[in-house]
Protein: Phosphoribosylaminoimidazole-succinocarboxamide synthase
Amino acid sequence: MSLDLPLVARGKVREIYDASSPAAPDRLLLVASDRISAYDHVLPTPIPDKGRVLTQLSVWWFEQLAPVLSSFGASHHLVSAADVPAEVAGRAMLVRRLEMLPVECVARGYLSGSGTVEYSRTGSIRDVALPAGLVEGSRLPAPVFTPSTKAEIGEHDEAIDFSAVVSAVGADRAEELRALTLALYSRGAEIALDAGIVLADTKFEFGLAGDALVLGDEVLTPDSSRFWPAATWSPGSVQPSYDKQYVRDWLTSSGWDRVSPPPELPSDVVEATRERYVAAYEQLTGTRFV
Structure:
């Protein structure tokens, strides 16, 4: 796909185009593809409709979370999902250009994934101490902020201590990021649970418009979050999920070494992954995906 706009950047699953005009010089077009990434690699097999799910779910979440952002004097970057070129309708957002902050703001309400690995070794996740006796899938006593670096394509995000966030953005901004991240997670988790979904963890990305904090990128999608069916949640084992963990599990079982080029996904894995993304959208929003 080629748009008649200058390409600003290409990420693992998105392209960003310059959509500025004399009347709106700060506009970007954020286009979500059907590419899927895992273990810091972009896989060769796309997931049909994935870009549309990510975009439309993000648009829905920006609306749900606007009151939380407003209470912090913050906002989100979405301008419009309607005023976009016809060839990317449904998978593109017109957004404000931001000065993005160099950290991934991760919130965890449950123990899972790399968090479980680190907890089992140290009893904490970086500098966040956790109580003894937790297992994979355990609900934490309170949500925790476990930030990470923002890696380039092919590089690994690395968990960092809160002091590293302070060094990167300053003490006051770091405190603001932590408080807003946890507030957004808590509201998102509440909304998700009402829809029968456990929001185990998620990541947010923030930027600045002037001095004001702005929520950017995608938000609370199956690419940036762990979603579990609430009806089957049971601590002590890996939970079934609505996110790309299904793809990660298949890649692990395939014997791929995570270094060489990743394998093609079988058609049944592609279809099952699409079904999970669509199910997350429909269950959360209460509307049919079309």
User: Anything to note?
Assistant: The mean pLDDT is 95. The helical segments are 50-71, 114-122, 162-169, 171-194, 245-254, 267-285. The longest helix spans residues 171-194.
